Amino acid sequence: MRIYGPVPSRRFGLSLGVDLVPHKTCPYDCVYCQLGPTTCLTAQRRDFFAVGEVLRDVEEALEDGPRPDVITLAGSGEPTLYRSLPRLFAGIRDITDVPILLITNGALLFDEDLAEAVRGADILAPSLDAGDEETFARVNRPHADVPFERMVEGLARAVDGHPGQVRLEVMLVRDLNDSQESVEAIARRVAGMRADAIELNTPVRPPVPERGALPCTAETLERALRVFGPKTRAIGRFEARKADKTAPRPFDDVDKTVRETLVRRPCTLEDLVSSLGLAPAEARCSVDRLLSAGLVEARAGASGTYFCVPHPNPTL
Fold first, then answer.
1. By CB atoms within 10 Å of each CB, which of 9, 41, 52, 147 scores lowest?
2. What is the pLDDT of residue 47?
3. CB 27, CB 81: distance < 8 Å
4. Across the strands, what pairs with 199?
């Protein structure tokens, strides 16, 4: 179990990330996943870490860092595989009033106990990348115990019954689910669900090379925005944060912040500058130090060079 941040998130502001499952433990093996192939494809829910251990780490992170906008349950696997979510939600609420965000692929929400459990999150952010079984298999590559229709029905029931905010993400991948037919099929499924917002995404960060998941075109995103309707937006780059003009921070502090951000998502230098409030030279020097130490690596992406933390994650 790992705690990240707080680090800036392009969707939800300053986020304290809580990783509840081992790396790449998931009921999906999505072709676009920036973390690589799923190494433990499972639909079996269990407690990978003790609830008390998770709560202690969350409390320490809240004491040590700035107040986040959200506490995010997501990370490098599917957080709804963690069985004791109700106890975890209750424990976090005893510690802080920071809103709890649950980012999930929605694969297991047909489980009635889980559907009830996720009601404890202030913000539920599930995803749906397919409107039919064939596309589902092609894009998400699910565990055999996650049939498409059952998944969609469970997702619809869970979001309809959720008392908080629901923000649904749709990932469009070139030549896999971005045709007019595919987009309309997903939109028909989404139209029957309660969602406060629909966020269209595309894999602009570098995918695993052998998978070749490519971003769709701007024209495709514009067309999809019209299909999905007025509650929809295309997710863009990080919103710029004002550069810190105070005295330079110690190298160790900057490097730790940069690496924690790159653990969560690959970033360009521009992303690091705008999201972390770093000076360009400060970001460049930090990345150079991390590259030299073998703590990050560079990958070519659709929008330039991205930096990421390879797995297994070394410790600073």
1. 52
2. 94
3. yes
4. 169, 233
Strands 13-19 and 2-9: antiparallel
In total, the chain counts a number of residues equal to 316
CA angle (28 as vertex; 151, 40 as ends), nearest 5: 130
Which 3 state secondary structure label does DSSP give 183? Answer: helix
> Degrees (nearest 5) of the Cα angle 257, 263, 267?
80
Q: Which residue ranges form the domains of the chain, and what is each CATH number?
A: 2-234 (3.20.20.70), 251-308 (1.10.10.10)
Q: Cα separations (Å) of 137 from 39, 142, 155, 216, 246?
A: 17, 6, 17, 19, 51
pTM, rounded to two decimals: 0.78
- Token digits for 133? 């079984």
CA-to-CA distance for 166 and 114, rounded, in angstroms?
16
Do the bridges between strand 232-234 and strand 297-301 make them parallel or antiparallel, or are there none, so unpaired?
unpaired
Q: What is the pLDDT of residue 143?
A: 98
Candidates 259, 108, 127, 100; CA nearest to 189 is: 127
The series of mean pLDDT values per 10 residues for the chain, 316 residues long, is: 75 88 94 89 95 94 88 91 97 97 97 96 98 97 97 97 96 95 97 93 70 86 94 67 43 77 81 75 84 85 79 46
The two structure tokens encoding residue 68 = 């986040």
**In the prediction, which pLDDT does 199 show?**
95
Nearest to 29 by CA among 117, 133, 121, 143: 143
Contact 23, 311 (CB under 8 A): yes
Backbone angles phi, psi at 47, to 5 degrees: -90, 110
Task: With CA atoms as reference, report the closest residue to 169 among 51, 52, 3, 11.
Answer: 11
Q: Residues with Cβ < 8 Å from 314, sequence gap 6 or more?
A: 294, 295
Question: Cβ neighbours of residue 33 under 8 Å, at least 6 residues apart?
Answer: 24, 207, 208
Give the pLDDT score at 248. Answer: 44
- Measured from the Cβ of residue 52, the count of other Cβ atoms closer than 10 Å reads 10
Cα dist from 97 to 38, 68, 86, 94, whole Å: 34, 11, 16, 8
